[in-house]
Specification:
By secondary structure, the chain is α/β, with parallel strands linked by helices. It has 4 helices and 5 strands; from the N terminus they run ββαβαβααβ. β3 (49-52), α2 (57-60) and β4 (69-73) form a beta-alpha-beta unit. The chain is globular. The two termini are 21 Å apart.
Amino acid sequence: MKVLLDECLPIAFRHSFPGHEVHTAEWAGFKGMKNGNLLRAAEDGGYDVLLTADQEIPHQQSSVDRRISILVLCAATNKIDDLVPLIPSVQAELAKLQNGCVVFVH
């Protein structure tokens, strides 16, 4: 699965998902893009899912007719130490993810 890490997540977090192709938004050339443009660019770039800590994206962007899914990571902060406990849940969601869905991971 091709995974895009939003700018709000630590770069080192990309190493947490072996077996998946994980890129940062900066690496993909999407740095500074706002949510709607970011989702369109990610879809055009062949990404299957956006990992983000931005809990407002699902309320700001419609997932109707989207090919890309969004996994929203709900942790105390977006620091790696707070995100690491979510890794098993994220991996489980990646295994069953369908196009265009939005999932909050706690």
